[in-house]
Structures are given as C-alpha cells and as structure tokens.
Amino acid sequence: MTLSVAIVGSGPSGFYSAESLLRSREDVTIDIIERLPTPYGLIRAGVAPDHAKTKNVARAYEKIASDPRVTYFGNVEVGRDITIAELREMYDAVVLATGASVDKPFSIPGHDKEGVLGVAAFVGWYNGHPDFRDLNLNLDTEGVAVIGIGNVAIDVARVLVKTPAEMAATDLADYAAAAVHASPIKDVYMCGRRGPLQAQFTNVELREMGQLDVAAPIVDAAQIPDDIPPEVADEIGERNVRVAQRNLATLREFTEIDPTGKDKRVHFRFFSNPVEILGGDRVEGLRVEKTEVVDGRAVGTGEFSDIPCGLVIPAIGYYSEPIDGVPFEDGRARNQDGRIDVGLYAVGWIKRGPSGVIGSNKPDGDAAAAQILEDLPEGGKPGQAALTQHLAGNGARPISFEEWKRIEAAEEANATDGAPRRKYSRVADMLAVLDG
Ligand SMILES: Cc1cc2nc3c(=O)[nH]c(=O)nc-3n(C[C@H](O)[C@H](O)[C@H](O)COP(=O)(O)OP(=O)(O)OC[C@H]3O[C@@H](n4cnc5c(N)ncnc54)[C@H](O)[C@@H]3O)c2cc1C
Questions:
Q1: pLDDT in tens, 395-434
Q2: 419, 169 in Cβ contact below 8 A?
Q3: Which region holds residue 380: left if phi is over 0, alpha if psi is between -120 and 50, else beta?
Q4: Handedness of CA 410, 412, 415, 421 (dihedral sign)
C-alpha cells in the first residue's frame, strides 16, 4: 500500500525530507503543509535580501515540488487549521519541519523598553514576512546595537548601513527600504561577550563588511591576537581554526581601513557583555561590561561602558514554537536523531536547534526517510483525501504550488531596478493575486 506522508513546513529541511523520501521508495505520496502561502521558509524570510545567489537554492526545491507524488498545501497552519493529532490519524507518517522562529529569551534589566526588538522580528520585517509587516519600527536613531557576533548579526548590520543603490537589486521589502534609508543611522555596534576567536561568522560574510560604499568597519587592533593559542584551537576544533585564522586576517585588514570620509561605521565590540538597557520608556543606550575569555567562557572584569543607541537588536539565537501534541525541551522537539515517536519525526531546526547552513539540513531528511522506511514498511492511511475533506469543512483556503507560482510571477513582474522580485508582505494581497 502507498505510504502517505505529511511534511509540516516548506523550508530547506521540509524539501530535503521530501527529496529523500521520493528517492527511498516509489509508492509514497507527500503533502507539504505550510502556514504561509509562500514556500521556502528562511530562504525567503531569513537569508539576507542582498544574498540573491543563496536564495537560488529554491530552484532545486521547485523540482521536488513538481514531482507528481508531491502536493503543496500553502496557507494551511498546523495548530490553526488542523492539529498534529488529526494529521497523525490521516497520514502514515508526519514529519515536522517547522524550524525555529522565536527569539531566545533575552532578559537583562531594561529588556522590555520600547526599542528592543528580537532579531527574528527584525529580519522577518525587512524580508517581508507577513507576521512582521506591521511592526511600525521607529528607526529615528543614529545608533543601533546588535547583540551577537555571528552571521545573522552581520546580515542585520549590513542591511542597516547599505545605501539605496547597494540595495536596489535586492528583494528588501519596499516599506523596510523606505524606513531604513530615511533613518539617520550612522553607527551600528555589534557586541559579543567573547572574542574574535570565538566569533561565529563565516569569512565571506565578514569580508563584505570591508567592501561597503559608505560604511567602514571599526576594529580595535588590541583585540585581535596574532595567532590562535593551542588551548583555544583545541576548544574550537580544527575546522573552526581555519575559519578563525581567515577571520583574524580579515579583522587585521579592517584595523587598517581609514574611516575618514565614510558616513557610517560598523563597530566590532568584542569582549563586551550587555548588562543593562538604558533610558526611560525608550532605549537610549546599552551598558556593557568588558570581559576576558577564561577556559572558553566570558568572565566580567568589572569595567563598564555605555553605547549610545536607540535600538537594540538581540541576535542570540532562536527557539522553535511549541506545537500541541509534540514534546518539547530546550526550545526544540524532544527527539532521538529525529524520531519523536513511530510515525512522527523532526528535521531541521526543530530537530537540532538553530545552527548550520542550508545544506546542514539535508542529512536530517535522509535520516527521517530511513527511519520512516524502517518503522513503516506498509502504508494504509488515507492521507490527502482526508486532509482535503477536513480543510474544505473548516473554511481553509489552501494554496497550491501552481497558485504560488502565480504569486511569484506577479512579484517578479512588479520588480524594479534589477531586483529579483517585489515581495507581497500581506496574505490578503497574495490571495488577491489569485482571487481578484
Ligand atoms: C536571519 C538568517 C539568515 C540566514 N542566512 C543563511 C545564509 O545566508 N546561508 C545559509 O546557508 N543559511 C542561512 N541561514 C540558515 C538557514 O536559513 C536554515 O539552516 C534553514 O532555513 C533551516 O531550515 P528549516 O527547514 O529547519 O526551517 P525554516 O527555514 O524556518 O522553515 C520552516 C517552515 O515551516 C513553516 N511553519 C512553521 N510553523 C508552521 C505550522 N505550525 N504549520 C505549517 N507551517 C509552519 C514556516 O512558515 C517555514 O516556512 C540563515 C538563518 C537565519 C535565521
């Protein structure tokens, strides 16, 4: 009997799972259920708008979606339109690929002031994610502090300081472009508790900071060591040592850049632990304590300084959103190499937590397909017929992949200035493309 599988979430891990399942057996049907009308998860809503090449990976996912054994159900949310328990009744296997979309809690004194905004919301906002369309961000400030020294923090800093010309050929949401480019932002401070040896950015992303039209990277030469001490090399591992060596070389080059004549600056503030957000109702600054790294851990020195800023963006990691019927711990689904239970599996960030690049999600798909093959040699549940009937009964408006392609075509037709697309950021506007 044909095996019916529901994959919840259409980001990289959802598509890689579909690909592995299609390869693992002929007699399988796969329904990909996605809460937004638009597919591709963080490829569309996370990856920076000026990294168009990275987003091209979606072309490979299109091929997977066009397999006759795969059906896309966009605009269907698990928890709102259907529950996990109902899906498990309908499908032989359910694969959770819902990612990690909520900011990790950030709670230093003052964290609830106006002007503190988690990176998930900020990135979603500039990428046109419907959940963040109406944030009404106040960017009327010259200083912004981004807490974190990884690729996401670098993306945010770059988007804040690039010029309209540098962002023209990107899919930065139009309202975000208008707000960022009208803002008086001059200084972006990237603060990390630890040092450049522990920083999580990849070298390609770091180097971009030295190639901006009107912004200069500011690095304190005294914070950049000449080489990597053996105990640190042991602690961070061989692969990271190579990345750290390249990063040190790049940061050293940055110390030689003369910022004179540049309008904006991105300050790399290593060894800076945020301890308090300053101001009244609104953020006016960030107090940081200088640290030393001892045995890989940041230890406070008792020396404090204040960073003037009107916006603080903690970029310290993500948690997965809990789903009824799924056990959770440490911000992700409790699982054993992806298996939650026989018939219920997790892949991608809801399985592993928020780390790794797009390709890191691929092995999760292979593992899930292998486990499904092992646990469920025979299918038998109704799958799609039951889902369609259920959705018709509760007034849902599922979007097919062909309909998504029509939305995409309209976004591409609306693009200007060499941009790949002009995104719709409201679900109603996407539906209007289809239904008038
Ligand atoms: C800001 C940012 C920038 C990044 N940039 C890069 C980069 O440049 N290069 C790179 O290689 N990697 C990058 N990454 C990492 C990469 O995006 C992730 O590895 C990858 O997207 C994780 O895939 P996923 O499928 O687990 O989750 P996601 O991509 O988040 O996909 C989850 C999907 O599930 C859907 N969903 C959630 N809840 C439900 C529900 N209840 N019902 C139905 N659907 C639901 C969501 O709408 C979403 O479409 C970046 C990550 C972030 C956060």
A1: 999 999 999 999 999 999 999 989 999 999 999 999 999 9
A2: yes
A3: left
A4: positive
Q: What are the structure tokens assigned to 349, written together?
A: 């960030």
Same-domain pairing of 245 and 152: yes
> Is the confidence at residue 54, as pLDDT, over 90?
yes
Mean pLDDT calculated for residue range 164-187: 97
Domain CATH number, residue 178: 3.50.50.60
d(CA 77, CA 37): 10
Distance (angstroms) between ligand 1 centre and the Cα of 11 equals 5
**What are 324-336's pLDDT values in tens digits?**
999 999 999 999 9
Query: Domain limits at 40?
Result: 3-101+320-435
Pocket test for ligand 1, best of 17, 72, 80, 98 (most atoms within 8 A of CB): 98
- The runs of H, that is alpha helices, within 198-237 are 203-208, 230-236
Residues with CB under 6 A from ligand 1: 8-14, 33-36, 41-42, 46-47, 51, 54, 77-79, 97-99, 123, 152, 155, 348-349, 356-358, 360-361
Q: Which of 299, 318, 337 is the last residue of a domain?
A: 318
Q: Ligand 1 center to residue 173 CA distance, Å?
A: 18
Task: Show Cβ contacts of residue 130 under 8 Å, excluding neighbours closer than 6 positions.
Answer: 36, 425, 426, 427
- pLDDT tens string 17-46: 999 999 999 999 999 999 999 999 999 999
| Integer Cα distance of 104 and 40 in angstroms | 22
Phi and psi torsions of 139, nearest 5°:
-105, 25
pTM confidence score: 0.96
